[in-house]
From TrEMBL:
Entry-linked Pfam families: Amidohydro_1
Keywords, alphabetical: Signal
Highest taxon of source: Bacteria
Amidohydrolase-related domain sequence ranges: 111-445
Originating species: Sphingosinicella rhizophila
Signal peptide: 1-21
Family annotation (PANTHER family): ALPHA-D-RIBOSE 1-METHYLPHOSPHONATE 5-TRIPHOSPHATE DIPHOSPHATASE
Lineage, broadest ranks: Bacteria, Pseudomonadati, Pseudomonadota, Alphaproteobacteria, Sphingomonadales
Keyword Hydrolase: no
Protein name from the UniProt record: Amidohydrolase family protein
Length: 468
């Protein structure tokens, strides 16, 4: 049977004739051609149809005298910006008049740029190993509280989107809903749900994290055989996953099954793997590989050829190395020196592998923000990126790897209003990213004067009258 390339006209003709019309998806979350222009969808990777106005604030913000770094790679320029609802609707020459009733923000002397994206986070990770189970693994309340506290640190660091690549049970999805509705301040959350591993794989060493079969509250789920790997993908999809996160160890049939199932459901797949397992993942057609772990030159070449991205997360391994190394792990049985991992980073960059920015801070590592994020951008500078190129990696490139570049990553009319105002010129000196003044996510101001703020109370008339 010959493969048919569907066009919009062919699809319309097929529908009009009553014929079955099932155009193939060009990539996992591509829904172009399946919705008409009037259909509103969720601003995540699932692209669920929703009623018009869902989670759209009544925002009218005019930013004047902005020094704009828009994330596209064009030179910085002076502009005025207008935000209405959750979108950026105008980027124009400075000196314009604000609409009536708009909040006016004077950005004079400061830089307006797209919000930063962190592609590797764990919002509900335990504070420390060895705590009593009710305070760590087995309490969704505890997991959600840990996540809510961490969201503040990301927001105040200018990070407007996080890709959560393994958290406990339903907690990350509940946090995502609360942030999306504006109930609590924080970055957008794109959640993978549970990490899927083979029995005894990464994250399960010495029973460090609970992975009992069918244990829905855990952050890690062990699976054996292709059918169980498919079932684990489906379980995460059922919970609300935006993407799927796998980790070695696995065999080829298992990773093939998981990737096939995820892509069939419209979800991208990222993998924490090393050596032969990374080659297996690449052969299976994953979308990205996490960490600067060992792999062959042939695998790097194949990653570039197949368009498989890398999120190297140099910074956590720098911290680990400064403390003596990654010890006691059966999924890290090799030396990860700074020299080796930066050599791999340089090799991937030279091969043309797309590199994204992620921090992978766990335990109390979020207390080091924004320093850890800035450090990762310094690491990109070490690979030969300029300051402005590192910022593009942190915004546009990250949005591309995430699969949200149609809505995030640059400041252009029609895109979501996720932006930050920085007291300085971070495109020239990335250290200025430590001076974030204001953060807007989807038209909502969530940070003012460098501090996260709660949304204003909405006081409504009670449906009863008190007796006199």
């Amino acid at each position: 049977m010959k493969f048919m390339m569907w066009t919009a006209s062919m699809l319309a003709a097929a529908i009009a004739s009553g014929a079955a019309a099932d155009p193939p998806l060009a990539k996992p979350n591509d829904r172009s051609g399946l919705y008409d222009a009037k259909t509103q969808t969720t601003n995540d990777l699932r692209r669920l149809p929703v009623a018009p106005g869902t989670n759209v604030p009544k925002t009218n913000i005019f930013i004047t005298n902005a020094r704009l770094f828009d994330g596209t790679g064009v030179p910085v320029r002076a502009v005025d910006l207008l935000i209405q609802g959750d979108k950026l609707v105008r980027v124009g020459e400075p000196g314009g008049e604000p609409p009536e009733g708009a909040e006016v923000i004077d950005a004079r002397g400061r830089t307006v740029m797209p919000g930063l994206i962190d592609l590797h986070t764990h919002l509900t990770y335990v504070h420390a190993f060895g705590l009593p189970a009710p305070l760590s693994e087995e309490s969704q309340a505890g997991a959600a509280i840990r996540g809510a506290e961490r969201l503040r640190y990301y927001a105040e660091s200018g990070i407007t989107s996080v890709r959560d690549v393994a958290s406990h049970g339903m907690a990350p999805f509940l946090l995502k809903e609360e942030v999306a509705s504006g109930a609590i301040p924080g970055p957008r959350i794109f959640a993978a749900g549970q990490l899927i591993v083979g029995e005894g794989g990464h994250g399960t060493e010495y029973y460090a994290l609970s992975t009992a079969p069918g244990y829905a509250e855990a952050a890690v789920r062990e699976a054996s055989g292709p059918d169980e790997w498919r079932a684990a993908v489906r379980a995460n999809f059922k919970s609300g996953a935006d993407l799927i996160k796998l980790a070695s160890h696995f065999n080829q049939e298992e990773v093939d099954a998981a990737v096939d199932e995820a892509h069939r459901l419209g979800l991208r797949v990222t993998v924490d793997s090393e050596t032969i397992y990374t080659r297996m993942a690449v052969d299976a057609g994953v979308d990205s590989i996490e960490h600067p772990l060992p792999r062959s030159a042939e695998t790097v070449t194949l990653m570039a050829k197949k368009g498989i991205a890398s999120v190297p997360t140099f910074v956590p391994y720098q911290y680990i190395n400064s403390g003596g190394g990654y010890n006691g792990s059966t999924s890290r049985r090799f030396t990860i020196s700074d020299e080796r991992m930066f050599a791999l980073g340089a090799e991937m960059k030279a091969a043309g592998v797309k590199l994204g920015v992620g921090t992978d801070v766990t335990l109390d590592g979020h207390h080091y923000l924004p320093e850890v994020y800035v450090q990762e951008l310094r690491n990109f500078r070490r690979l030969g990126y300029s300051a402005s190129q590192a910022l593009v990696a942190a915004t546009l490139t990250n949005a591309e790897i995430l699969g949200m570049d149609d809505r995030l990553g640059t400041l252009q009319p029609g895109k979501l209003a996720d932006l930050i105002i920085v007291d300085g010129k971070p495109d020239q000196d990335i250290e200025d990213l430590k001076k974030v003044d204001l953060v807007i996510v989807g038209g909502r101001i969530i940070v003012r004067d460098g501090r996260a703020i709660l949304p204003p109370r909405i006081e409504e008339k009670a449906p009863f009258t008190s007796a006199k």
